[in-house]
Amino acid sequence: MTKRNEEWQYMDTLRPPVYVCLRRKADSNGVVPRLKIDGRVDKEEWSHVPWSDAFVDIEGVVKKPTVYPLTRMKMMYDDQHLYIAAELVEKQIWGTILEKNATMYHENDFEVFLNPDGSRHNYYELELNCLNTIWELVLNKPYKDGYSIKNPYNLEHVQTAVYVDGVTNDPQVECTKWSVEVCYRLSELVQFDRLRERPARAGDVWRVNFSRVQYQLMTVLDEETNELQYAKVPDTREDNIVWAPTGVIDIHRPEKWGFVLFSSASDEHEGILELNKAMETFLCEQIAMEQILDTIYYDQRTFHATHENYAESLEELYGKTEAFPRLDLVEEFELSQPVIERQSDPDATPVYTPRGVETSKKRVYSPRLDPDDEEDARKPPLCRFYTVSIKSATQRWIMTQDALLRKIEAS
User: Fold this and answer.
1) Most buried one in 210, 225, 395, 407, CB count within 10 A?
2) Omega before 152 cis (within 30°)?
3) What pLDDT, on the 0 to 100 scale, is given for residue 30?
4) What is the pLDDT at residue 27?
5) Phi/psi of residue 397, nearest 5 degrees
6) Rounded CA gap, 143 and 10, in Å?
7) Hey, what domains does the chain have and what are their CATH numbers?
8) Rounded distance between C-alpha atoms, residue 30 and residue 89, angstroms
9) Residue 307, SS3?
10) How high does pLDDT run on average in the chain?
11) pLDDT tens-place string over residues 285-306
């Protein structure tokens, strides 16, 4: 049996949070008026929308039970837009970055992560500070999976606003909080949903996370202006305060992000009923299936670190099928046994080498094996690329070695 992935064994104990995204409320005439994006999250238009639970440390409360200043979020939508609100309690409101698409997390900021199709690839990130300076980018793959990044990647119609309850960058004023509003055009977010390829509607589930990056500050005297200003405390690292803890100091673990259900209701009670029904009919089962696939994915990473290739079967990975550590979920949800399958190199290009011509480079891919070449005909040990799949009576999910997750629709 291969050694278990210790990182995942802890991460697997963290259950991703769920949130119901309500519709905006119409006025007495049945019209949904245009929402002014000004950073105020205490206005009437947000009053029917529930707050999330308070954000926690990115490593989870078991590893780091630190109590931070309150951070929380809300989400709502209408036929055209997705709206996000956040409240960040803070006595020292500090920010200096004014250049759009500058690296924002070197200062205090608020961050949004959207993965509409739940694939863990091709996800959108927004970071902004208390000065409403933004940075947008897209990750085709997370960093741990040989990341591919589009930086910057600015959406044409995104709107952001910040409200400061206090005075920014003034150590002589004790502030209360700053709050954020973000508005997205749903049609512009379709590019991140390769599963449905349409704007969000009631019943859809997205993977989402939010993060607050917070540094310890001290007050110093600016020798040029002779004024007090904030500076980061030397030799201290930032706090990462998140909605959905990943278990490690890496927000780019979309497998641990939260689940957001788009509701058909604008009433919180009705929305919660819809969320409960979704949990009963498919979402709890989906979460379990993803846990199973993630367990294999992380244990395959450990296997690869030793063997430089991946196992071709559960038996090869765990010694025997019965040793698979999440058989409890397979049995509880009456799922099929997960199946690992070898895959060919998706990026390989066939190369023709005339018979009798020697090459100094070892051939690693060939679409047709030369029957006279015993070395090529020998099956290589283990595999470089694989998929792992699992299914229930109503769902089938498949994951590749770089953590790309796809739902396979019934034919």
Assistant:
1) 210
2) yes
3) 87
4) 87
5) -125, 145
6) 20
7) 15-266 (2.60.40.1190), 282-348+378-411 (no CATH)
8) 35
9) helix
10) 92
11) 999 999 999 999 999 999 999 9
